[in-house]
Amino acid sequence: MKNYKLPVIVALLIITFFTVFVSGCQNDKVFTINESEVEATLIYKNDFDDDLNDWQVEQMEGGVVELNNGKLEINDVKGCTVWLKEKFEGAIIIEYDVVIVQDGGVNDRVSDLNCFWMATDPENPSNLFENSKSRGGKFSNYDSLQLYYMGVGGNHNKTTRFRRYVGNGERTLLPEHDLSDSKYMLEPNKTYHIKIVANNDLIQYYRNGQLLSNFQDDAPYTSGYFGFRTVKNHMTVDNFKVYQIKS
């Protein structure tokens, strides 16, 4: 009788290798940064199909953050930050899709597509969420953090600004990061694909391929947390992904 065990084992090993290889390829993506291609590996993904266990909501009274039809829905009155609880280190790229809703709702204001990234708390370097309750979604309560901030269509859709928070209330705003042209503002009910690059000293923010912020940081923040940020706004978020840039 022939011994089929060895061929079967070899076949299983080949299938396993192929499966792992294909899976790895599916998790890799090539990005173009400053006309150069970089490879990155998917390290976090959330399609908002299950629950909000990965997220920490800091929101002022009257607002609601929930999952609705497979999307993160933020319906806010006075101020809200939704933090991803996972801390990232090193060179990363963040991507997600977002829609600013205008459909007659009380908070359907086309304004303030904002976010924080590489955020840390100098007072609590090992736990960003130590003061989560006291911050409570009030915008000025985040001045004590170290982070990068992008505010698209702020001030009733009249300004788009990038700032670097240093942790002592200083929020540097350079002239080239204070935009007021209409092409940098928001349109209602339009899907925007956001891409954020934190590649060591290179910090960038793209919206639908349009570079809105380009900053070279002499003392870059290379680890921290990401958070969606808004005020008096109704928006949905989907297809959230974080990639680690390969060295």
Automatic annotation (TrEMBL):
Recorded GO molecular functions are:
hydrolase activity, hydrolyzing O-glycosyl compounds
GO BP terms in the entry: carbohydrate metabolic process
Query: Which is one Pfam family of this protein?
Result: DUF6250
Segments forming domain DUF6250: 74-240
Q: Which InterPro entries match?
A: ConA-like_dom_sf (IPR013320), DUF6250 (IPR046217)
Give the highest taxon in the source lineage: Bacteria
- Protein name per its UniProtKB record: DUF6250 domain-containing protein
Q: What does UniProt list as this organism's lineage?
A: Bacteria, Pseudomonadati, Bacteroidota, Flavobacteriia, Flavobacteriales
